[in-house]
Write a structure and sequence with these properties.
Length: 164
C-alpha cells in the first residue's frame, strides 16, 4: 500500500494521469458534492491500472470502477448472475470446479472461502456466495481508491487537502 501512495504522479513522460469528477446530489433542501479523484497510472504488476481492480479479483470484477460505485452502489457484471448460480450448484454437488471452463476462474476463491463455513448446501449456498462476492467487491473498491483507508493513505489525503 505504501508503494501505491508513491505512485500518484501528475504525469510521467508527458502522459497526464489525474482527473477529478464532481458528483452533485440533492438531499432534501441541501446539496452534497463529491469530488472523485482518479488516476490512470499503470505498472508492470498492474497493467490495467494501479487504481483498478487487481488481477486476483477479476473473476468477480475486472471492469473499471465507475461513478455508480463511487456513490455507494455495486454494479457487478451481468455474467455473474448465471456463473454464481452454476457455481452454487457445482459446490453443492461436489463437482470439480476447475474442470468447468466457465467456473474454473472461481476455483481458488471457492477453496479459500469454503474453509470458513461448516455445512454448505442448497439452503445456504446463495447467502454464502452473496456474502463472499460482497467481500471481494469491497476489495475491488479498496484497489480503486487513490488514497487508501490506511494511516499512510489518510496522511497523504490530508496532505493533498492541505495543499488545496
Amino acid at each position: 500500500m505504501q508503494q501505491q501512495q508513491k505512485a500518484i504522479f501528475a504525469e510521467t513522460e508527458g502522459e497526464m494521469h489525474n482527473t477529478i469528477t464532481p458528483i452533485a446530489r440533492r438531499h432534501g433542501e441541501r446539496y452534497e458534492l463529491d469530488l472523485v479523484l482518479r488516476n490512470n497510472i499503470t505498472t508492470k504488476e498492474n497493467p490495467l491500472g494501479v487504481f483498478h481492480p487487481h488481477a486476483e479479483l477479476h473473476h468477480i470484477k475486472k471492469e473499471n470502477i465507475g461513478l455508480i460505485e463511487v456513490m455507494g452502489l455495486a454494479v457487478l457484471p451481468s455474467r455473474l448472475k448465471q456463473e454464481l448460480t452454476d457455481l452454487g450448484d457445482a459446490i453443492c454437488r461436489g463437482s470439480d470446479i476447475r474442470s468447468d471452463e466457465t467456473l474454473a476462474k472461481h476455483a481458488d476463491w471457492v477453496e479459500f472461502f469454503l474453509k470458513k463455513y461448516g455445512t454448505v448446501n442448497h439452503a445456504n449456498i446463495t447467502e454464502i456466495l452473496q456474502t463472499e462476492t460482497g467481500i471481494v467487491f469491497s476489495k475491488v473498491l479498496e484497489d480503486a481508491g487513490v488514497y487508501k483507508r490506511t494511516d499512510a493513505g489518510q496522511t497523504c489525503f490530508r496532505k493533498f487537502i492541505a495543499a488545496l
